[in-house]
């Protein structure tokens, strides 16, 4: 006999499939949701559906946005000749929070990982190269992938391609701890990594 109703089981199952949520957390969340007022649950469900429906990639930098061109790419005060390459939108947000970086970004949506079978074609790398060849004045491409094995592999791969295209390419300093996820690192460390970047 099932301990819970079929609906509760289904909800627990869906929640447990989310990253970082084990079966105990999933149970706790499920019961919390059931005890919430109807209107609140509907707002939550609706915001998930709306986000999924409306969020798309910026056609220029591939970050997640509600519009064709994200606010950063649309901002003429930003330095469009400096492009920082990051693994995901959360890393972009981490650098934006410092408020000190004035260039634009390119979001790869992943990193090359031979072990996981993720190759150069599985990330937004072709899009980066197309962007670079289509844009005239690129002063610098800053590679800010994580300092994990995957991040370093990706940085090496990309730098070779970009250097071959005759564009200046730098890598953020490894003030960022090895295996460190950019989004968890404080702003001071992020800025230090950016300022201490080296030529590749
Ligand atoms: Zn953009």
Structure description:
By secondary structure, this protein is of the alpha/beta class. 45% of the residues lie in helices and 13% in strands. The protein has eight helices and seven strands. The chain has helices at 6-16, 23-35, 38-54, 71-74, 89-98, 125-134, 149-164, 187-195; strands at 56-57, 64-65, 79-86, 103-107, 140-143, 169-171, 198-199. It has a five-stranded mixed sheet. A hairpin with a 6-residue loop joins strand 1 (56-57) and strand 2. Helix 1 packs across helix 2 (23-35) and helix 5 packs across helix 8 (187-195). It starts with 5 loop residues before the first helix and ends with a strand. It binds zinc ion (ZN).
Helices and strands, in order, run as HHHEEHEHEHEHEHE
**Structural class designation:** alpha/beta
Number of strand elements: 7
Count of individual helical segments: 8
Could you give a short account of the major beta sheet? 5 strands, mixed
Relative strand content: 5-15%
Lateral arrangement of strands in the main beta sheet: 4-3-5-6-7
Give the mean pLDDT.
90
Question: What hetero molecules are in the model?
Answer: zinc ion
Radius of gyration using CA atoms only: 20 Å
Ranges where pLDDT stays below 50 over 5 or more residues in a row are none
Q: Can you give me a brief rundown of this structure?
A:
With 200 residues, this protein is an alpha/beta fold.
Name a few traits of the molecule:
five-stranded mixed beta sheet, binds zinc ion, 13% strand, alpha/beta
